[in-house]
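We emphasize that the prediction below concerns an isolated chain of 155 residues; any contacts that depend on oligomerization or on bound cofactors are therefore not represented. The input was used exactly as deposited, without trimming of termini.
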Amino acid sequence: MTEANTTYLELLEKRIELLDSLASALLASRSAMAAFDVNSLEARIAQQQALCAEIQFLDEQIEHLPDPRAAHLRPNGPEQSGASSPKLAVILRRLHQAHEAVKQLNSAHRALVARSRCTVNALLNSLQAFEGNYRDAALRQTANPHRSDEAINHG
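Result of the prediction step, given as a token string:
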């Protein structure tokens, strides 16, 4: 195996690792959203951004390889890769599976964010609609804190 082939396979393996890490980060952010853990969610988003940047940098390295097979990196699946060695075919199949898993998780994550956005907007609209009622009651209570006690005692 030539040095270019070895480098190519190593870069493909690294890309699979990064995609697996991205999938884990997407799952972790889903858990953070469900737990309303904003700090964890922000950390997962930063992690996802860093992983995407690493994947992009890795893709640029692969595109600049002298080996013409490097064009087969794109996650089109091994059946379209023209892979000449069984090892390359296995790696490309794993790459395709990792890419599909991230794609599926990303779609689910996008749907969760969209539903969350709708929920938050509905809550904000409700709060705005009742803002005057809640604010007036709070102002009355803070202006005369004993009044609510009197109403309870005499009511």
